[in-house]
Amino acid sequence: MKTELTEQIHELMEYGLRPVTMSDIRSLAPVTATGLPRPATRSQQLGDRWLRPRRAIVAAVAATTALASIAILFGVTYEGGASQPVIDKGAVQLLAKVANVAARQPAPRVRDGQYMYVETRAAVTARRPVPWTGTQAHPFPRHSHLKMITERIWVPVANSCGSAWTPVGEKCRRIGWLNDPTYRLLQTLPTNPHALLATIERVERGHGPSLAQEAFVTIGDLLRNTIAPPKVAAALYRAAALIPGITLVRHAKDAIGRSGIAVARLGPGADGGVREELIFSRSTLRLIGEGSVIARTGEVTGATAIIRRAFVDHRGQVPPAGQRSSA
Prior knowledge:
The protein has 327 residues and is an alpha+beta fold. The protein has helices at residues 2-14, 22-26, 54-62, 65-73, 89-103, 183-188, 193-204, 211-225, 230-240; strands spanning 45-46, 49-50, 115-125, 146-156, 176-177, 180-181, 246-253, 259-267, 274-280, 287-294, 300-312.
C-alpha cells in the first residue's frame, strides 16, 4: 500500500501537482467535492494496450477532495469568483480563422455500420526515467522522461451499445454521450457556438478545477478523438473562443515534433500551472495535436499528434497511409 501511494504521489508531481499537507488543510476553509461518475470508455483496454487520454487525468484530479484543495491552493478562479481572466484577442482571431477553414470542408457521407478511426502518437510520462545519451533525436526537454506510444481507436458511427468501451453497469445510450460520442450524436450538437458552449457546460458542471477549464478540455477531446461534422467542428472552435482565459502560444510542438501555433488555457498545477494547448498547422490551420506544458519552466508533461482520421467499414480496419479526415 505504501509503495502504491508513493507511486501515485510521484505521478501527480510529474503532472505538475503536489500532495496536500496537513498545514495546507488547516489553512483552508472546509472544502467538499462530489465524486461524480464519468464514462470510463477511453481507459478501456483495446487490443494489447490501454488508451489513457488527458481527460482521464483531469477527471481523476476532480474526483477527490484533496485535489480540489490543491486547485484552491494554486489560485484557480472558480465560477462566480471576483476576478475573471481576460481573453487574448490573438487567440480569438486564430480560432476564428481555424473555424472558417473547418466550416469549408465537405461533409462526409457516412453509413451507420461504419466507424470513426482515429490514430494518434502520444508522448506520455514514463514510469521510469528515460536514459539520455545526448545523441538521439527527441523533440522534448531531456528532463521530461516522456515515452512515445501509438493509440488507435474505432468509434461506432451510430451504435455504441455492446462496444468494448461501454461502461460496466451503465445503461447504454445508442448514440453515445458528450464525452464519448458516436458520429450521429455529433450531428445533433448545436452549431451556434453560444448554444454549444452552454450544452458542454451543462454536462461538465461540477467536474474539473473550474467549469471554464473543463469546457476547454472537453472541446479539445471532441476535436482530437472524433471526426466532427464540419459545421460542428467550426462551432467547437468558436465556442473555445468564448472561454475566458484562453491565450495565444506562437511557438508550440506536437508529440512528433511538428511546429505550429497554439491556443491554450492555464490550468492548476505547481510552477505557475499547467498550460493545455491546442496546436494548429501554420500552413493549413488544421488541428495537428495537443500539448501540456508547465507554465513557469516550459517543461512538456504530455503531448499528442494526430496522425490519421478516417471512416472505415469495420473495427480493426486501418485506412491507407496518408488518408486523413477533413475535420
